[in-house]
UniProtKB/TrEMBL annotation:
<dbReference type="InterPro" id="IPR036343">
    <property type="entry name" value="GluRdtase_N_sf"/>
</dbReference>
<keyword id="KW-0521">NADP</keyword>
<dbReference type="InterPro" id="IPR018214">
    <property type="entry name" value="GluRdtase_CS"/>
</dbReference>
<comment type="similarity">
    <text>Belongs to the glutamyl-tRNA reductase family.</text>
</comment>
<dbReference type="InterPro" id="IPR036291">
    <property type="entry name" value="NAD(P)-bd_dom_sf"/>
</dbReference>
<feature type="binding site">
    <location>
        <position position="113"/>
    </location>
    <ligand>
        <name>substrate</name>
    </ligand>
</feature>
<feature type="site" description="Important for activity">
    <location>
        <position position="103"/>
    </location>
</feature>
<feature type="binding site">
    <location>
        <begin position="57"/>
        <end position="60"/>
    </location>
    <ligand>
        <name>substrate</name>
    </ligand>
</feature>
<dbReference type="GO" id="GO:0019353">
    <property type="term" value="P:protoporphyrinogen IX biosynthetic process from glutamate"/>
</dbReference>
<dbReference type="GO" id="GO:0050661">
    <property type="term" value="F:NADP binding"/>
</dbReference>
<protein>
    <recommendedName>
        <fullName>Glutamyl-tRNA reductase</fullName>
        <ecNumber>1.2.1.70</ecNumber>
    </recommendedName>
</protein>
<feature type="binding site">
    <location>
        <begin position="193"/>
        <end position="198"/>
    </location>
    <ligand>
        <name>NADP(+)</name>
    </ligand>
</feature>
<dbReference type="Pfam" id="PF00745">
    <property type="entry name" value="GlutR_dimer"/>
</dbReference>
<feature type="domain" description="Tetrapyrrole biosynthesis glutamyl-tRNA reductase dimerisation">
    <location>
        <begin position="320"/>
        <end position="413"/>
    </location>
</feature>
<keyword id="KW-0560">Oxidoreductase</keyword>
<feature type="domain" description="Quinate/shikimate 5-dehydrogenase/glutamyl-tRNA reductase">
    <location>
        <begin position="181"/>
        <end position="305"/>
    </location>
</feature>
<dbReference type="InterPro" id="IPR015896">
    <property type="entry name" value="4pyrrol_synth_GluRdtase_dimer"/>
</dbReference>
């Protein structure tokens, strides 16, 4: 990437792991909560990293950033999670420069989502960029790239039907409940936690069932009350968790904790209980499966539910990819101009030095020297010359590298690389 004058010594990398190769347990090991993200960013600053984006969702954890070697970014991830380098290497992907750029486009456009066309990740990338910018860890290249990805994402949403139909993990949860549970309107449903997928599942349940027995519990009761007010749900104290679990027919867990919040010791009832664990890391201990009356379904199981909607979405992939290529070409065009921008800038300064020296000579020679007219003519000539060189360097028919070297040699230019 240094040839584009983005970074003098570093390359642009995308490193991470996703649902494609890493199961829920491994993804949990590399999950970053807000405190861990902040610690990672602080460490990156201490290590002199010049630009960084960090995302961690239920489906993936990724770092986009500049480094001399990807291990620098991998180490940041492992230092701030439970994951190890050995674990990472078994399931990870590492993309460099153009491949890393292409990966961000694919991820941000919903083509790499566990549910095809799920655009939730783009808001995660935006949030990540805001944090990085706040900590001065977002250089011009990364910001420009993200804006291009956002543009592609918007166009794909509006110009294709890849996100049409109610297909998401939360919808898949409700679909599973409908397919599995009889007489759902009479069942007691408990939502434990206010994670985004849990909230969306709750909203879908309210929309698609006439159930009036939905209860919400959260460690922070005020958050639960805010959501309950929106959906007209009953709120119970965290202290009542065990009692409410034992009243329930369906338990939806979306607590977003780093360790299990529900285990078999909380379940005393013998009646059938369906538990949906919508958390990464898993928030329901697998020991609940030793209970004969319990059925445990995890996020990954729900994501495998495919239907007609997903099949229809696949038909729109070629158009989405064409949009990505179009926006990516614009971005690469900007990168090409970055390649020769320092040389053009140095050339302009050199020509201005020539003009300044010549103007000084003419001032001494000419008694009625027209300062304003001379300045105007020299500035216009400098602009025309630099524009001419810029157009030449943009021409696909010429070797940009050879032309740059020739210009530097002829005008004895010293150029600076800019991030």
């Amino acid at each position: 990437m240094h040839q584009y004058n983005i970074s003098k010594t570093n390359s642009f990398y995308a490193i991470g792991l996703s649902y494609k190769k890493a199961d829920a347990e491994i993804r949990g090991h590399f999950s970053l909560d807000e405190d861990a993200k902040q610690a990672l960013i602080n460490q990156a600053k201490e290590n002199g990293v010049e630009s960084l984006l960090v995302t961690s969702t239920c489906n993936r954890t990724e770092i986009y950033g500049f480094a001399q070697h990807p291990y620098q970014l991998i180490q940041l991830l492992c230092d701030n999670t439970k994951g190890t380098v050995d674990e990472f290497q078994k399931v990870a992907y590492i993309y460099k420069n153009n491949e890393a750029i292409a990966h961000m486009f694919k991820v941000g456009s919903g083509l790499d989502s566990q549910i095809l066309g799920d655009f939730e990740i783009i808001s995660q990338l935006k949030a990540s960029a805001r944090v990085s910018k706040k900590h001065k860890l977002l250089n011009h290249f990364t910001e420009r790239l993200l804006n291009a990805v956002i543009q592609a994402s918007k166009r794909i949403k509006t110009e294709t039907e890849i996100s049409s139909g109610a297909t998401s993990v939360s919808f898949a949860s409700v679909q599973y409940i409908f397919n599995t549970v009889e007489d759902i309107s009479s069942k007691n449903i408990l939502l434990f936690g206010t994670g985004k997928i849990g909230r969306n599942t709750c909203e879908n349940l309210v929309k698609h069932t006439k159930n009036e027995h939905i209860t919400l519990i959260n460690r922070t009761k005020t958050k639960a009350e805010q959501i309950a007010g929106k959906f007209n749900l009953v709120v119970k104290d965290y202290a009542n968790l065990q009692e409410e679990i034992n009243k329930s027919d369906i338990l939806i867990v979306a607590t977003g904790a780093q360790r299990p919040t529900v285990d078999k010791h909380l379940i005393q009832s013998k009646k059938p209980l369906l538990i949906l664990d919508l958390s990464i890391p898993k928030n329901v201990d697998s020991n609940v499966e030793t209970l004969d009356n319990v059925t445990l379904v995890h996020l990954d199981d729900l994501s495998k539910i495919t239907d007609q909607t997903l099949e229809e979405r696949k038909k729109h992939i070629p158009l989405a990819e064409a949009i990505i290529e179009e926006v990516k070409a614009e971005f690469n065009g900007w990168l090409e101009t970055r390649k020769f921008a320092p040389t053009i800038k140095a050339l302009k300064h050199k020509l201005m030095d020539f003009a300044s020296t010549e103007l000084e000579t003419q001032r001494k020679k000419t008694t009625d020297f027209n300062e304003a007219q001379a300045e105007l003519i020299s500035n216009n000539l400098i602009q025309k010359i630099t524009n001419h060189f810029a157009h030449h360097l943009k021409d696909d028919a010429v070797s940009t590298d050879e032309s740059l070297e020739l210009i530097k040699k002829v005008f004895q230019l010293e150029t600076k690389t800019h991030v």
